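Example 3.2
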Amino acid sequence: MTRPDAPPPSADDLPPPMSPAALGALLGATVGGVVLAVVVLPSWAPALARSLDGEEPAAYWYLSRASGLVAYALLWASTMLGLAITNRWARLWPGGPTAFDLHQHTGLLGLAFALFHALVLLGDRHLGAGVAELLVPFAAPGERSAWIALGQLALTGGGVVGLSFYVRKRMGPKIWRALHFGGFTVFVLAAVHGLLSGSDTQVAWVRAGYVATSGAVLLATAWRLVALSRAPSS
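Structure, written as tokens:
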């Protein structure tokens, strides 16, 4: 059991990141899920086929909405775990290394769901969007393109932060931590994207969820800033 007065774990003490093979399998499963939704499932289930390939295909839209909410929830969990580590709350439970491992894996899993959230819309004929319009910031048409771009920027930034786990020893702890703090920006972009362009924002519990999770991150960040301001200068 970790002593309450023990120092927080350094980058060298933390467990190694997910192996490249495991990361490739995770992203491969995401792409495979898209292929399954677009190509395979309609041939297995005629009723589902009408939803996926009928005159008004809606399944892709619902899959995108659901996976977007899951991606946001995982991103929030990863952000809160990171704050629990920096605020030293994780020493009480579940422990610094375990919290770091969960922080990394929830972030990568959220990235996979976010990628699925975007790419599954390739099957939506009504939307008619291509890969560039779904992934490249400000490439999407329409009046809400700016808010959609925030989500695209969050996806890009999340990919950079996620890959930083694999090069942190080459970058050094100071540079890695500075880059890793970009996760806060990713969370803010994702939250604003969800609030202003999400189709489910008008649902009361979804809106309340955005407010509650954003408030939790804000309070935990404020706690950290107060602790830093009170820390004696060396």
